[in-house]
Amino acid sequence: MAAQPPPASASPTPIKRTVLQKVDVPTANYETITAIAELSPGVNIGRHTHFGPETGYVIEGDFTFLVDGKPPLALKAGDSYQVAPGVPHDARSGEKGAKVLAVYVVEKGKPLATPAP
After folding, report:
1. Domain total for the chain?
2. Of the candidates 94, 100, 44, 45, which has an alpha carbon nearest to the alpha carbon of residue 77?
3. What is the pLDDT of residues 38-57, one digit of tens each?
4. What global pTM score does this model have?
5. Which H or E element spans position 24?
6. Which among 5, 41, 48, 50 would be 20 to 30 A from 65, CA to CA?
7. CATH code of residue 63
8. What is the DSSP string of 46-69?
């Protein structure tokens, strides 16, 4: 199924994730998803959680990583991060946006991310 471009009147989304690969985790009902996350300039992507751990490496740009229970963390190209399963988090991108290589471990059939209250 081919992706369709959004209508011209649609507002741009604050983040675009491009899945690079999915790999089954041996002897488990899980898979890893490797993706490029592209954060639009000057936006909050929205509080969300993941069913499994997320690790990431900032390829370009910068953003502030906002993880519940922790102080804001300024990240720039060359930095890496991780967030535990189920922990609400958000990101606020800098004026040029950011590009991140992210790896997620998710239970098969579960969504990559879900909105957090």
Report:
1. 1
2. 100
3. 999 999 999 999 999 999 99
4. 0.77
5. strand 15-24
6. 5
7. 2.60.120.10
8. --EE-SS-EEEEEEEEEEEEEETT
